[in-house]
Design brief:
Length: 109
């Protein structure tokens, strides 16, 4: 019975370890104007959450976050990298319903 209780306690501590240390399910390992790397516990965060965090970071530089790599480490944590890329002006045009053709003329849909 003691061994079983000890095992359950160890499992509970290992699952909640990152949240207890970080205060949430992720930690920004590295960030600058061209990229961000996030270390996360997949039990508490999903890819959409990480994309939002990366986008908030890249927004500071007027850029968009594009996923680059995602790897699991030996502890079951995920390192996810995003590249901050310059926003395309065509993106705004598509969202507004206007499209620019190859000659530079703009038309509305």
């Amino acid at each position: 019975m003691f061994i079983r209780s000890l095992f359950i306690l160890a499992a509970a501590l290992s699952l909640g370890g990152c949240v207890a240390v970080w205060g949430h399910g992720y930690h920004v390992d590295f960030a600058n104007s061209s990229s961000i790397t996030i270390n996360s516990d997949p039990m508490f965060d999903n890819t959409g959450d990480l994309q939002k965090i990366a986008q908030q970071h890249c927004d500071k530089y007027g850029k968009d976050a594009v996923p680059k790599t995602s790897e699991m480490d030996l502890w079951g944590l995920r390192d996810t990298s995003f590249v901050c890329v310059k926003r395309q002006s065509a993106t705004a045009n598509v969202a507004s319903g206007s499209v620019q053709n190859s000659s530079g003329n703009t038309s509305s849909n």
